[in-house]
Backbone:
């Protein structure tokens, strides 16, 4: 869908830095995930790689990942409810990826 690849790690780190400063993510961050809800699986993969500790940086990266996944899933769910078969199939893939 996009013409240039998105560096998920970099975007999540940027969003995490904003969260750490108690700032709202800029609207251009939403655009990545609304236009490319398929980024959900790579974000899940990134989330899985985060260490399981109580480090502040890791918590903000976790929060940023959940923020991004929430946008992706919301967009997919809306498309699925509107009869988009691709979104329905991809949503099933995401759910499988979660298990």
Residues:
């Amino acid at each position: 869908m996009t013409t240039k690849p998105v560096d998920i790690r970099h975007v999540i780190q940027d969003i995490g830095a904003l969260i750490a400063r108690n700032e709202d993510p800029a609207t251009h961050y939403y655009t990545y995930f609304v236009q490319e809800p398929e980024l959900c699986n790579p974000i899940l993969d990134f989330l899985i790689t985060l260490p399981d500790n109580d480090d502040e940086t890791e918590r903000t990266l976790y929060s940023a990942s959940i923020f991004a996944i929430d946008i992706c899933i919301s967009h997919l769910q809306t498309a699925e409810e509107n009869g988009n078969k691709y979104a329905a199939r991809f949503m099933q893939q995401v759910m499988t990826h979660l298990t």
Notes: The mean pLDDT is 91. Residues 8-98 form one domain.
